[in-house]
Specification:
By secondary structure, this protein is mainly beta. It contains seven helices and 42 strands.
Length: 672
């Protein structure tokens, strides 16, 4: 008697929306035979989702609709019943609409959109909302529909001009069709409500409409008639823009058109008064007629101009009186290094300038060239700072007037040094086969200077600053080199067991960029006696030296010249002694008679005359009837006339004897 389910039961298929859903059946029982009636109620489960008729819904709502307007939405269907059926709707968040869920008589639910905030198409053309339907199952099932709302435009915006006033200028006699101005307005509305038509305002004079034309679609204002500055100088044109709505919006603007004068009127000469006939005896300056000249044009177009022809009265003027140009050496030939600029306030050919390089120095013309038209100075060859540091030249700027006028501009070109020369070793000479050996004795203390490497650098400045370092040595601990002097010192005291021969390689570097270098080799012998060095040198010298005879002859010549000089000096000394003895004998034989006769002499005392200080006192002895005399000088002053005269003769130096023009013709002889 068990009642079994023979197949899957679908309540929605059996009963649809009917609730409750029950199935009736009858049971026959035999022995005894009986008939029973029964019913099975099919209970609903939440096995169906709500379903919208379509996945999208589209609405068109005018922006002029007032708040509170309601818009019904399509309902969703759920075949389940009871709490499993559709229970409510939900709307996505938005600033304009709310959702109102209503219940029908049969208990079904439906939703309506309620406008809470008015729409503005100019702010937002369309809205996108999502409507969700939910049943009462656990968990609830749902369905979604996209709602697309198009905001329909209303003519709620008037046209607006980009600017309230436009300004334009046009020349008189401008041909018809010439564009004067382009006005522009915009309307935020859409469709016909935003289409703009341009036109003249109602109070625009008819004369303006005859002279100007306005394109109603583009807003272009063009010349239509003949403009005349002498008639009207300024036009004030009022225009309007109107949309095509049912109740059209309107905007206004004005265009100020200034007519520019053109020299289209010839001067008119009017004779206002005539004095005729003129008497033959009329005085100069008598007024014959009064002339009046008028021109209807304005400003410069109305003046009578007097043309002043130019005279070449201005010499060219350079922006600078002199130029200093710095050029790196080893330059590429043909490069421009300077542009000499000058101006001339004259006109035409009087202001046409030409540039010439004056050939003061012949080498300048081979190295430099100047463009006659623009004054660009070119370098024709490569420069060498070590050959020449500076070039001076004169550039002549001349106009084309008659006669021409010219101005000279001095140009100095300085050659800037590059580090293109390596240091050159002067000692020891690197290109000779002779060996330079310096000798140092054993026991020499530390710090003793042995020799010095001498070098030069043809560059200048920092590029010629040479530093010396010890690159290689037989014993690196024994010697050191001065960094900037090149002097070679002993780094420690030399011992008796030091190696007899030492070879040093000195590296010489300049401080240029890039750095250049050279090397020098120095040989040093550690020996007690010079003989040992000579023995070592004989061992290392080549067997057959073609220059050893030349050295011998040079030494012999030095010895002979020295001997001849000594003999000559000895002979001169003997001769001087002989002359001195002869003069002494002459003095001894004549001094008694010379100083015993005081009559013909006068003594002049310069000290007593107040002309010289006592330290420089001299005595001068002159005869009364002579025209020449000898000036004799003495060192100390003595009171005795004889003593002073003797001291004068004995102490007078040869360099202090002078002849002066006086009253004596000769000195007195010893007999006189």
């Amino acid at each position: 008697g068990a009642l079994l389910v023979s197949e899957r039961i679908d309540r929605e298929e059996l009963c649809g929306a009917l609730s409750p859903c029950s199935l009736s059946f009858e049971i026959v029982v035999e022995n005894p035979l009986e008939l029973y009636s029964g019913a099975v109620e099919i209970q609903d489960i939440n096995d169906n989702d709500p379903v919208f008729p379509s996945s999208q819904a589209r609405l068109e709502i005018s922006e002029s609709v007032a708040a509170g307007a309601r818009f019904p939405l399509e309902s969703a269907q759920d075949p389940d019943v009871g709490v499993n059926s559709l229970q409510t709707y939900q709307l996505s968040a938005n600033p304009h609409f709310a959702l109102d869920v209503q219940t029908r008589v049969d208990g079904s639910k439906y939703a309506e959109l309620v406008l809470e905030k008015e729409l503005d198409r100019e702010e937002q053309r369309e809205l996108h909302l999502v409507l969700t339907a939910l049943d009462g199952g656990s968990p609830p099932r749902s369905a979604h529909v996209q709602i697309h709302i198009d905001v329909v435009d209303a003519n709620d915006n008037a046209p607006v001009f980009n600017q309230s006033a436009y300004k334009a200028s046009v020349r008189e006699n401008t041909p018809s069709g010439t564009l004067v101005a382009r006005i522009s307005a915009y309307d935020l509305d859409d469709g016909p409500n935003g289409d703009i038509v341009y036109s003249f305002s109602s109070h625009t004079p008819a004369k303006v409409r005859e002279l100007f034309a306005l394109d109603s679609a583009t807003g272009e204002l063009r010349v239509k008639g003949q403009l005349d500055y002498e008639e009207t100088k300024l036009y004030e044109i009022y225009l309007q823009a109107k949309d095509k709505g049912a109740v059209p919006g309107m905007a206004h603007c004005k265009v100020l058109v200034e007519v520019v004068d053109v020299n289209d009127n010839a001067p008119e000469v009017t004779v206002t008064s005539v004095y005729s006939p003129v008497p033959e005896d009329a005085a100069p300056g008598t007024v014959v007629a009064l002339l009046s000249v008028t021109d209807l044009d304005s400003h410069d177009n109305g003046l009578i101009l007097v043309q002043v022809s130019d005279v070449n009265d201005n010499a060219p003027k350079s922006s600078q009186d002199s130029y200093d140009v710095y050029v790196l050496e080893n330059n590429v030939p043909g490069i421009p290094i300077l542009n000499v600029s000058a101006t001339d306030p004259d006109l035409g050919r009087n202001a046409h300038l030409s540039y010439t390089l004056l050939q003061g120095d012949p080498t300048v013309g081979h190295i430099f060239s100047i463009n006659r038209e623009n004054g660009t100075l070119y370098l024709l060859s490569s420069l060498d700072h070590e050959y020449q540091v500076e070039f001076s030249m004169m550039v002549q700027v001349q106009d084309s007037g008659s006669p021409p006028l010219a101005t000279n501009v001095s140009v100095s070109v300085f050659v800037t040094d590059l580090n293109d020369n390596a240091p050159t070793v002067l000692y020891p000479h690197p290109n000779t086969t002779a060996t330079y050996t310096d000798v140092v004795a054993p026991g020499t203390p530390a710090g003793h200077m042995i020799t010095k490497v001498v070098a030069v650098d043809a560059d200048a400045g920092y590029n010629a600053w040479i530093s010396y370092t010890l690159l290689q040595a037989t014993d690196p601990s024994l010697f050191s080199v001065g960094l900037h002097s090149g002097e070679i010192f002993t780094a420690r005291q030399l011992r008796e067991d030091e190696a007899p021969q030492h070879t040093l390689v000195i590296l010489l570097k300049d401080h240029g960029e890039p750095m250049l270098s050279a090397s020098a080799t120095v040989s040093i012998s550690v020996a007690e006696m010079v003989k040992e060095v000579f023995t070592d040198l004989t061992d290392v010298a080549p067997a057959n030296d073609p220059r050893r005879h030349v050295t011998f002859y040079l030494i012999l010549a030095v010895i002979l010249v020295s001997a001849a000089f000594f003999i000559t000096m000895l002979s001169v000394g003997i001769f001087k002694c002989y002359k001195w003895r002869q003069s002494k004998e002459l003095f001894n034989s004549s001094r008694s008679t010379l100083y015993r006769t005081p009559g013909p002499f006068h003594h002049i005392d310069a000290v007593r005359g107040g002309f010289t200080p006592p330290n420089f006192y001299h005595q001068v002895y002159l005869t009364t009837d002579s025209r020449q005399s000898d000036l004799l000088c003495k060192k100390p002053f003595t009171s005795s006339p004889l003593g002073s005269r003797q001291s004068t003769m004995r102490n007078g130096e040869p360099g202090l004897y002078h002849q002066i023009v006086g009253t004596a013709s000769r000195l007195p002889t010893p007999a006189e």
